[in-house]
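Good morning C.,

I know you're traveling, so I'll keep this short. The sequence:
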Amino acid sequence: FYTNHIIAQSIYKNIPPVVITTFTVQYRGMDVKNWSTANNEYTAKAIKDGHKYYATFDQNGKWLMTTKKVNWPWHLPSEVKNAFRKSEYGSWNIYTVKVVEKPSGQFYQITVNDSNHPVDIFHDNLFTQKRVFEFKSNG
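The tokens, ready to paste straight into the viewer:
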């Protein structure tokens, strides 16, 4: 009991109380794994229903954004899949997909690479490219 209490306190070390309060109110029931800080922003890595969430707040407790990884590209809305496939990079491999929510709205962030193009083992890093695209929910 005491060990868990000490560990729980340590993940909140150096996190402003207003940030913790805002997170707790906005994301009830989420299990916080850790906090990270950068540039006066505080990001909680939390889990709910088996999904990882990264919720970011400023030093005043204002919510900035939340990202959630989508495990499978086919879980994308059909409008987003179609928009991506029609782009000039539509034949590239989808590397990661994230749902990003901000006060301005929700969008999908798709990271792709061209590793499906044949290159030899010695020049792989020279020719593989990576791109990040953002799509609104309606594509």
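Safe travels,
E.
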